[in-house]
Amino acid sequence: MKGAAVAVALVASIAPARAQTQASTAASAGQAFDVASIKQNKSGENGGRFGGPPTRWTATNVPALQFILFAYQTQDFLIEGVPDWVKTDRWDINAKSDRDFPPAAIGAPDARRDMLRALLVERFKLVAHKESRDRPIYALVVAQPDKPSAPRLHRSTVDCVALLVQLRRGSANAPPPPNALDGVPECSITLPPGRLTLGTQPMTELAAVLSQIVQRRVVDRTGLTGNFSALVTYAPENSTPDPNAPSIFTALQEQLGLKLESTRGPVEMLVIDRIERPTED
């Protein structure tokens, strides 16, 4: 999903661990929408959007593949066995839950993923399992450990949970969401073509976003703890709006003081065993 906007994550097989997804797994823990309406979108438009708080999930003109990517917190190059219609047919979803979901800390489990997985199993009849493969990967490391400073990478101590509480309350006295480095909004990640912004996120989140850009698993080996805000501008692959823009590899080193080292390691693949078009309602 190169160049996609993010608002608010190859040969040998190693002892595959098969863990079938079951509808009861999410539902038994109460992680399921109370009601959900699904309709196929035949508008012919290209754009789509989805998301919302755990209490309400809406999607407009979105391929089922995007639901799978979000629900299983994976990326398209880490999925096998996907039928063509999963990539091309588009759907509208309107779902809601009557449960109360308090704001979660960064890195905490996202209830929306569990509920969407349950919806995929129940309505799309999804059956999938995971397999570990040994494949080329990148390790995200500090380029020069003796010179850890970088012009566009800064530590952030913003309390994102407190910020979410204020935004939910809609208090007139609540301060607007703060901006960090170069106007990067805190507590968010965006990835328009040629620009990556990270607001109050751990290095593991940066690694996950970089995986989308380079289409290979990226693991965090920086040793940097805590949360960071960062801005990276680069020349996206197959597109050169700025001929002088650096590659993502060069940009990481020059702007964040980080680099990607090629290596090998285990890569968890999501294998689709079965999926069906849902019955519309």
From the structure above, extract its key features.
2 domains, five-stranded mixed β-sheet, four-stranded antiparallel β-sheet, 13 strands, disordered N terminus
SSE inventory with pairings:
Elements: E1 12-13, H1 23-28, E2 35-41, E3 49-51, E4 56-63, H2 64-71, E5 79-80, H3 84-88, E6 90-96, H4 111-123, E7 127-142, E8 153-156, H5 160-169, E9 188-190, E10 195-201, H6 203-214, E11 218-220, E12 227-233, H7 248-256, E13 258-274
Parallel strand pairs: 5-13, 7-11
Antiparallel strand pairs: 1-7, 2-6, 3-4, 4-6, 7-13, 8-12, 9-10, 10-12
Give me the count of strands: 13
Structural class, please?
alpha+beta
Instruction: Please tell me what the overall shape is.
Output: globular
In whole angstroms, the N-to-C terminal distance is 30 Å
Percent strand: 25-35%
Helical amount? 10-25%
Q: What order do the SSEs take from the amino end to the carboxyl end, as H and E?
A: EHEEEHEHEHEEHEEHEEHE
| CA-based gyration radius | 20 Å
Mean pLDDT: 84
Largest sheet: 5 strands, mixed
The parts where pLDDT drops under 50 for at least 5 residues are: 1-29
Question: How many domains comprise the coordinates?
Answer: 2
The number of distinct helices, counting runs of at least 4 residues, comes to 7
Note down, in words, how this protein is organized.
Helix content is 22%, strand content 31%. The relative contact order is 0.22. The protein contains 7 helices and 13 strands. It has 2 domains: 128 residues, no CATH class; 133 residues, no CATH class. The strands form 3 sheets. Strands 1, 5, 7, 11 and 13 form a 5-stranded mixed β-sheet that branches. A 4-stranded antiparallel β-sheet has the order 2-6-4-3. Strands 8-12-10-9 form a 4-stranded antiparallel β-sheet. It is α+β, with helices and mostly antiparallel strands and 281 residues long. The N terminus is likely disordered.
